[in-house]
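Re: duplicated header lines in exported C-alpha cells

Our pipeline writes sequence and C-alpha cells for each protein into one text file. With two proteins the header for the second block appears twice in some exports. Here is an export where it did not happen, for reference. First protein block:
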Amino acid sequence: MKDKVRFAIRVDGKVQGVWFRQTTKDKAEELGLTGTVENLEDGSVYIEAEGSEDDLGKLLMFCTTGSQNAEVKGVTLVKVPIIGYQGFSIK
C-alpha cells in the first residue's frame, strides 16, 4: 500500500459561485481521497486532501481547470502532516 500524504491546496481565480467546491468533492470522492474544501473570504478556494500522492496529483490536475464555469488563475500547494480525515466534506 502506498503511503498516505496530505496536501493543502489554494485555488485562485473565479472559483466561487461556479460549483467548484461540489465538483472538487465529487472528484476527491471518485479518487478515494478524504479532506475538506471551503470558500475563503478573499474569493479563493482552500482544499485539504489526504490520500496517495498519485491520487492527490490527479486532484491537483483537476484544480487547474476546476468546474465548468471556473476561471482558475493559480494553484498553490503545500505538503502538510496527516491529520486523519474521515470522508470528504464541504465547509
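Second protein block, exported in the same file:
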Amino acid sequence: MVPSNRPAPSGAGEGSLAELAWLFLRLGTTAFGGPAAHVALLEDEVVRRRGWLTREEFLDLLGATNLIPGPNSTEMAIHVGRVRAGTAGLVVAGACFILPAALMVTAIAWAYVEWSRLPELSAFLYGVKPVIVGVVVQALVGFSRTAIKTPLLAGIAAASVALVLYGWNEIAVLAAAGATVLAARSAPSGGRGSPLGTAIWGGLAAPWPALIVAAGEAPFSLARLFLFFLKVGSVLFGSGYVLLAFLRADLVERWGWLTEAQLLDAVAVGQFTPGPVFTTATFIGYLLGGVPGAVVATLGIFLPAFVFVAVSAPWLPRLRASRRARAFLDGVIVASLALMAVVTWRLGLDAVVDLPTAALAAISAVLLVRFRVNSAWLVLGGGLAGLALGG
C-alpha cells in the first residue's frame, strides 16, 4: 500500500529538510539520462543507501505517479519529500530537484539568444537535432510495446493519430480516448458495442469544429505563457516526450511564437541537461520573454505536479485498486503515444534533411535500443559530429 498517511520518521524536521535539500540539489545537478535514469538513481539513494523507504513502498509510489498527470521523476521526488518530512518536505524536495536544471537551462538559453548565429552553434545543432529524433523514436517504440496491450488500445491509438492529423485539440483526444476505454471495459460485452462506447466513437467520427483551435498568430504575454504551461502540466500523461506534441501544436502551429527549429533546439537542451526534461519549458520561456518568461514557464509547468501529489496522496491506494481509473488511464496513455508519434514525424521532417542527418538519427536509435547508451552522451556526440561535418 502507498504510505500516503505514514508518519514522518523520527528526526524529521529541519535535519530532514536539510538532507532532502542536499540530496535533491545533487540529483538535480547530476541526474542525466531521462526519467528512467532519474528513478533508478533515486531508488539507489532513498532505498538502498538511506533506507527512507522499502523497495515495495518505492514501487508503490512509482506506480502511483502514473495515475496523475505530470513529470514522473519529479513527482517521485515530491512523493519522497512528503513521506520524509510532510508538506515542507514535499516542497523542498521538488524545488531542489528542479532548480539546478532550470538555472542551467536559463544560462544556455541566454547563450543561445546571444550567439545563435555563430556558424559553430549552427553546425552543433545540425548534428543534435537528428539525434533527438532518434531518442524520441526509441522512447516511442518502448512505450508502445508496454502500453498497447489489446486490439482495442491499438485501434484507439490509430484513431487518435487520425484525429490529431485532422486538427482535433490534443486535450479532447486524450479525454475521448480515456472515456472510450472506460466505456468499453464497463460494458457487459467488454467491447465497443456498449451504448456509451458507441456514442463516444460516434463523437470521434464527427467533425466538431468547436473543439478545434484555429491556427493563427496570437499576441504574446507572460500571463498567456503561464496559463499555457499550467494547462500542459495539468493534463500531460505519459513521458516528457509527449510534451513535444503540446508545444508544437500551440507554440508553433497555432500561435506562431516559435519555429520548428527553435522547438527542436529547446528539446535538445532539455535532453542534454540533467534533471527534469520539462525544463524545456524554461528554455522556451527565456526565448519568448527573457528571465521573467523562463520563471513563468517553469512555475506553470511544474506547479500542477506539486498540487496533484499533495491532493492525491491520501487517495492513491483507492485509485490504484480501481479498475475504472486504470481503464481510463490506459486510454489516455495510448492517446498520448499517438500525439507523440505525430509530432515525431513532423519534427523528423525538419531535422533529417540529408544523408548524414538520416544516418545520425538511425545510429542514435540503434545505440539506444541495442546498447542502452545514455541519451545525454548521444546528444553531445551528435553535436560534435555536426561540428566535424561543418553543418
